[in-house]
Amino acid sequence: MTGRHHLFIPGPSALPDDVMRAMDRPTIDHRGPAFQALAHDVQDGLRWIFGCAGPVVTYPASGSGAWEAALVNTLSPGDQVLMYESGQFASLWAEIAGRLSLKAEILPGDWRRGAEAQRIEDRLRADPGHRIRAVCVVHNETSTGCTADIPAIRAALDAAGHPALLMVDTISSLGSIPYRADDWGVDVTVGGSQKGLMLPPGISFNALGPKALEAAKTATLPRSYWAWEPVIRLNADGFFPYTPATNTLFGLRAALAMMRAEGLEAIFARHRRLARATRAAATAWGLELQCAVPSEYSAALTALRVPEGASADRLRQVALASFDLSLGNGLGKLADRVFRIGHLGHLNDLSLISALAGVEMSLGLADIAHQRGGVAAAMGVMAEAQRQGEPA
Amino acid sequence: MTGRHHLFIPGPSALPDDVMRAMDRPTIDHRGPAFQALAHDVQDGLRWIFGCAGPVVTYPASGSGAWEAALVNTLSPGDQVLMYESGQFASLWAEIAGRLSLKAEILPGDWRRGAEAQRIEDRLRADPGHRIRAVCVVHNETSTGCTADIPAIRAALDAAGHPALLMVDTISSLGSIPYRADDWGVDVTVGGSQKGLMLPPGISFNALGPKALEAAKTATLPRSYWAWEPVIRLNADGFFPYTPATNTLFGLRAALAMMRAEGLEAIFARHRRLARATRAAATAWGLELQCAVPSEYSAALTALRVPEGASADRLRQVALASFDLSLGNGLGKLADRVFRIGHLGHLNDLSLISALAGVEMSLGLADIAHQRGGVAAAMGVMAEAQRQGEPA
Amino acid sequence: MTGRHHLFIPGPSALPDDVMRAMDRPTIDHRGPAFQALAHDVQDGLRWIFGCAGPVVTYPASGSGAWEAALVNTLSPGDQVLMYESGQFASLWAEIAGRLSLKAEILPGDWRRGAEAQRIEDRLRADPGHRIRAVCVVHNETSTGCTADIPAIRAALDAAGHPALLMVDTISSLGSIPYRADDWGVDVTVGGSQKGLMLPPGISFNALGPKALEAAKTATLPRSYWAWEPVIRLNADGFFPYTPATNTLFGLRAALAMMRAEGLEAIFARHRRLARATRAAATAWGLELQCAVPSEYSAALTALRVPEGASADRLRQVALASFDLSLGNGLGKLADRVFRIGHLGHLNDLSLISALAGVEMSLGLADIAHQRGGVAAAMGVMAEAQRQGEPA
Amino acid sequence: MTGRHHLFIPGPSALPDDVMRAMDRPTIDHRGPAFQALAHDVQDGLRWIFGCAGPVVTYPASGSGAWEAALVNTLSPGDQVLMYESGQFASLWAEIAGRLSLKAEILPGDWRRGAEAQRIEDRLRADPGHRIRAVCVVHNETSTGCTADIPAIRAALDAAGHPALLMVDTISSLGSIPYRADDWGVDVTVGGSQKGLMLPPGISFNALGPKALEAAKTATLPRSYWAWEPVIRLNADGFFPYTPATNTLFGLRAALAMMRAEGLEAIFARHRRLARATRAAATAWGLELQCAVPSEYSAALTALRVPEGASADRLRQVALASFDLSLGNGLGKLADRVFRIGHLGHLNDLSLISALAGVEMSLGLADIAHQRGGVAAAMGVMAEAQRQGEPA
Lengths: 392, 392, 392, 392
Description:
The structure is a homotetramer.
Chain A: E1 6-8, H1 17-23, H2 33-50, E2 56-60, H3 63-72, E3 80-84, H4 88-99, E4 103-107, H5 117-125, E5 132-138, E6 140-141, E7 146-147, H6 150-159, E8 165-169, E9 188-192, E10 203-208, H7 210-218, H8 228-235, H9 246-262, H10 264-285, E11 288-289, E12 301-305, H11 312-323, E13 325-329, E14 338-342, H12 349-365, H13 374-387
Parallel strand pairs in A: 1-13, 3-4, 3-5, 5-8, 8-9
Antiparallel strand pairs in A: 2-10, 6-7, 9-10, 11-12, 12-14, 13-14
């Protein structure tokens, strides 16, 4: 097909030219001084993005590797972890815990809202012996478009007086939705490259608080590739214990420079506006949002439910075949029931309109019941933001 | 600004990744065998695109260089040329003729339609002594969005029994709108890189018929850089008489491969659809088209008039500042009265919707009288095309 | 510094323009049809490169991840593995085994030759109870420049009638030195991207034989990210159980196309010639090779010993500071005693001469005792190869 | 062939990654504010490189276009120009003058030295009526590797009290060899992109002094594309009278930034060292330099004569076929008698060694009488420079 492909899955997101060109460079010696400078640069930037003063461990791995790393560095075989099932990704994290010989207790959810602080507090209060060693929550559920209130969850642990570690997956929120690891008292934050950081997939992160570092000293799950200690030790000098994904780090340096130039507040405001416009379109179409709690709407993606009897996957096929538009599919129990629009990363108003127009036309072509006017509604939101002086 | 810039001027047009990456290569020896193979490849492709069996001379120059080349290779000081003033670019070509000591007779036009065959025929019939040596017309007037019927103009020359050369500027039509130099009896066709050929600006073309080659033998205007003869002679072996713009030729090879893969008929149909959608938007907005003759609507760009009292340039500033959207300005006597939407080259439905949405919102923000619904109307055209099975 | 950096570490190796430009593309939906086609393409190519009919599991991970994967998929806690200590990388693999709760028995080596089949056979004969579950050897020791004779080691296992799995690390040999997983009866082959495959670091491989797949069914080491089974299952449809490193796979497709065009035999012959030229230089300089067994000289890299009292690291610093040349450092117990010249991947005669000239001049500048004439000797090898009609 | 191609023609020269990546960007609106900023940036940089306070006119054209531009803007039909025939490029410039209806008087040269100030002075003294309107010399003859002493030539005009314009071609010297248009009293300087400026071919320059601007007011040669006036007028606002080669200007901005970072003095010293090393090789090989005057040796390229009976083109074919090395051919009357090594632009010591090694081996393979040791001699020069503390 001619012209640009329209990639609107909730990550991997669009790569900026600056990032692609930065990666399009000869690899350098990962044991030389130029690499050291690169490593120090990206470490500084990562601490800034995660909002943490401690180390950020970077893995040549996808996000699921960083999930695994968070667990194996801090826990011991048979340890109990509390996983809040906010959606598919929370479920996958729980599965991983199980495979690693942890006892993953799942707090079941309905996939229509984020992890609830009160339920976590209740559960922890019912664990006076502190057998639960870690609480794992997903900040932004990529399968549902619901966010969790992390400060509230932190407060829940504190209110319960429970010493469990708090681990948070920010894979699809980092760089798109405000997040402050230290301020919010998160012990391990899991992050990935291919969403708000505007990079290709291939590297992922663990941002560490002091309590997590302490836990790592006694945790006995076997670990080698994922072990924090050698990474932290060598990172101090700008090196890694293995060959790092140098070219992706070139891209990361470029992405961080772009983010500093735009400013985190402006980035977050832009994401909120794009999300608002998307929801306006959904409302106009008469499609229900998967996320049922307005205060938890994600600024990074929106999952839309198709009417009973309609097929979300058919819609996606039409969008791809007719308009070269990639939409996110429904995952797990939401398969074929929802489609997801990613509106995160290197994106602006007019590009989002492309996606919404593609959805609106595809709804018609796929004969899915809806009202027109979604694009017009989104344009209304955008024009109003301009009138209010919001930066584009 | 974050996200992609939205470039919708009527050229330079969007560069495909394939083209940019092809140019992103070390330059090669322009006197070596790899270059020869490149030169032969692009010459074959250019003949295909121009629809000519004779040579296509490629200049490292912008399109105005190729205008000049067409004149200096075929004419002698004081020669009379008939230039049809279809708009700004026709006027510029006439100015060039004047600077080169030709007598440029202008057939005045109202800038709302393309060159008219009947008026040309009438003028030629009034030249029984055949003092007019060349008739110059613009196939697609980039300043107005009007096309000319070249076969009809050819027929006009023939009907008048006039031996003048026929020269046609296809800078903004080539690769977007059907064109057949030989079939249509055009003696010199002027082309450029940065429109339908999906390349950056920097090279331009003269496609030559036998009568033009014959004229070059006796033409006495001084010429060196623009001289066809040494280029044709060295091109036969895959070389050039000067250092060619090698990297742009890398891009041209890639662009031609893309065009062969899509097929000319599909390319032209795509442009017609995008133009139709744009006009549907204009109609919905209540904005008048600069081109007053429906059969002459350009498939490559559309020029829209703003209401009396409104400023087209103000609209363009708002679009750029608010939505990072570049629209074409009104040129010459149309300054501030029209804005132009380029819908040519590497472009598809959803990307065009971006531009139309940006225009619709900017009309509102700039307080220019209009009705909403332009984007919706364009979507209607696109969805209908899908229903009719038109390839996207 | 101006001009190209001269990267001659034994991997990461030089990236071809074709590979870098192929990666310099927008990421695509890893759940869509374009990705499926990509995945099938690279899987076919990987089977070809590894010489295996079974699955090749691709990890977004550095090579040390693939080491870990080979172990955790096939072994159970407390299992005994025999690791032949041919050098630093064999030692690191053994360390990993230890961290994963395996009993790693090390067959000590002197780091001057590759793994010896006879010693392996002897050890296996002394294990009538077959407590050793796997034999791990490095095909090409990147720290020493010695290769191991894998068919002979296979024969050793067979001669001993021992059922242990045979696992081979080909990280720095794959695509540079002949390797045939199936023909040689290797159960798990570990590979990486950043050497002979001419890619940046970031993905790594396990190529699997039937016996390894069988072992995976009963192996009980905990595994999640590294688990073969879900990868193999989803790969069948062109997908992955996690977000793959899509852009690196773009590069892999391009690299495989280049390798098919050159042909494996030509690639191997080129590496042998470059190695021969490097050794000729070493001999002329009067520097001793770390590899003491001529039949085991690596075609991918050469490790050279500096005279007693001299510092290899000082030499490397001079080469970097004076000539922008990166050489490989001595690792582990060879620190400061050897430097390593990588001559693998996307490399030709004249580029290697650059490196050798940089070494020869730096030996002088660093006041390390040597004879001149190394570059001349290497040129002698290259010119002679040309005379013999060897393809460049 | 595998590995990098070795491009050592005297331009186009190697493109830095920074430059290629800078050009690998979407084209922008040449009538918008981002373009204005670009235009102002590159104009500042060009004035710095040319050493002139007046305008530098940039053409989308090869260097021969800029030659033509220098003439047509300042002269009138029949005007006499004095062209010093220092080699092929001086001859071509004279040919161009002839084609443009100028009377080109050639001061014949032997192609073994640069333009001689004394001979120019003598000729001008013999022109008391000042019929000679311009003196044209080539600063660095790309066909011979000889430079001319421009300040001495300026002094020659002054000594003769002759008002002719002084025009200098710096196509292959600019950015490689010191040049100061204003300090040296040059009226029109002709420059190109594809040599010391490290860009692909496609743009070229006229740097103008006040006397040239004055001459342009009365010069009557027809001109349109080449006319300075509209370019200067629109450049003041950051625009051009035609579509500029935007992407090449992106590259120019990047190249200028690199040059500012390295510093002109360091750039010139590097070129001198590379030239010295090349001549040391030539001397060791026993090959005669085409340039017979040591004070005029070019720092940008070296032309070497092959012995009588030997074929330079055969040598070049062997170098290309055996080692993927492109050398410059002998031009005009030097065809097959010399080959040329370009050592200009983005180049460092070790890369030059590649070329010299390729030449040395090819001399042997082509059975051309020579002594070995050229590479060794060049290394001697480079190592000595390091010992003297010269920056690499």
